[in-house]
Design brief:
elongated; 106 residues; mainly alpha; 434 Repressor (Amino-terminal Domain); Helix-turn-helix transcriptional regulator; Cro/C1-type_HTH
Length: 106
């Protein structure tokens, strides 16, 4: 019994497809074969091809393994780095204290 494939909206599927294409282009620019990358990432060649197609059924951990082989793992730290909407929502929830905290004069 296999896992169910996640259901994504077309615009979200397009994002994954673009990610897969970018990964494939990075591999080709480095002149790595699919066999080399899959072996170094410890995944099967069909799994690598699924990643390069932007498959939503491949775990993010496997995407990361391929990014590590390509030297692009630091790109993941850029995701949600500048969360402008999140900061605005957080700021809207902040409450201003009426008085400053007491100072401890020890």
């Amino acid at each position: 019994m296999g896992r169910e494939k996640p259901i994504l909206l077309p615009k979200h599927k397009k994002l994954l497809t673009e990610l897969g294409e970018n990964i494939k282009l990075a591999r080709l620019r480095r002149k790595f074969s699919a066999e080399q990358v899959s072996e170094r990432a410890n995944i099967s060649r069909p799994t690598l091809l699924s990643i390069e197609k932007g498959s939503e059924s491949v775990s993010i951990g496997l995407y990361l393994q391929v990014l590590i082989v390509l030297g692009l793992e630091k790109d993941l730290s850029l995701i949600a780095k500048d969360d402008e909407l999140g900061r605005k929502l957080q700021d809207a929830e902040l409450r201003v204290k009426e008085r400053a905290p007491k100072e401890n004069s020890g």
